[in-house]
Amino acid sequence: MGRLEGKVALVTGAGRGHGEAVAVRFAEEGAAVAVCDILPEEELDNGVGARIRAQGGEALCCQTDVSQEEQVRQLVQRTLDRFGTIDILANVVGIAGPTKDVWQMSLTEWRETLAVNLDSAFLGCKYALPEMIRKRYGRVINFSSGTGKQPLSHRAPYATSKMGIIGFTRTLAADVGRYNITVNAICPGSHEERGVELARARAEYRGEPFDEEAVRRIYSEPRPNAFLAGRWCADEGFVDRGAGSEDAATIAVFLASEEAGNMTGQDINSGGAVMW
Fold first, then answer.
1. Through-space distance between the first and last CA atoms of the chain, rounded to whole angstroms
2. Which of 84, 77, 182, 82 has the alpha carbon at shortest distance from 137?
3. Helix crossing, 192-206 with 17-28: angle to 10°?
């Protein structure tokens, strides 16, 4: 029996990367899973949905813009209509936002990043928490980033949104603990597609050539001493390499399980690039 047997999970941003890995791992552990992304439902159904069903799991796939309140409300209602309850909410969705200096970006770019990365977590919790409060049980897992704890140059909206997730997580944990609901955050490293996206944007910002193949090699080739360490460890021979989606999904399974029932208000790094 899996650690999440009989539970119902809702995972946002599950079309690729961290969200997809979390959804698949939840299903492997026995949960029925509702997934959403901005992608068309057919594409989700043929991707992450097919992966979940291939291992005998149940999947509900929904095309959802999680920055839009009515769409999130409908997503939660569809999940309740299909599975009857929600035990676990994983707010994984996120976008990179612009790679620009503050004085060069538009208010629209700023607001879009915060809407997708931060407002979506608020909206997911706003509509899923009443069911968790009713049953006096729930697990909320928000996705921040290593950037939630340290600066990332030329990426102010992204950094602000990820730092905001940590503050939101801690405050919400204090608000809902009396209902036997835990709220924690994961600060994962980059997954391959996001790493390529960010590297391309930084090269464009600097006016430098972009070598996509070289970036992808970081994720695919075995490397000696690939301990996940901060740059200050470079002199010791450690490789500066971000933790991937499977690392984040492993932490998410633990946080969603009964084993983490007394853990709340925490922000956990899935790699060692940040050690606080």
1. 34
2. 182
3. 170
137 as an active site residue: the answer is no
Q: How many Å apart are CA 49 and CA 33, to the nearest integer?
A: 9
**Dihedral sign (CA 80, 83, 125, 13):** negative
- Exposed/middle/buried for 165, CB within 10 Å: 0-12, 13-18, 19+? buried
Options 127, 137, 158, 219, the catalytic residue: 158
Bridge partners (DSSP) of residue 184 are 141
CA 168 – CA 121 distance, rounded (Å): 9
Q: Which two tokens stand for residue 196?
A: 């390529």
Residue 49: how many CA atoms within 13 Å on its side-chain side? 17
Calculate what percentage of the chain has a pLDDT beyond 90. 73
Length of the chain: 276
Greatest CA span in the chain, whole angstroms? 55
Give yes or no for a contact between 144 and 186, defined as CB atoms under 8 angstroms apart.
Answer: yes
Q: Dump pLDDT digits (tens) for 200-220.
A: 877 888 888 988 888 787 777
Predicted structure pTM score: 0.91
CA angle 124, 270, 19 (to 5 degrees): 40
- Band of residue 237 on the pLDDT scale cut at 50, 70, 90: low
Three-state SS at 94: coil
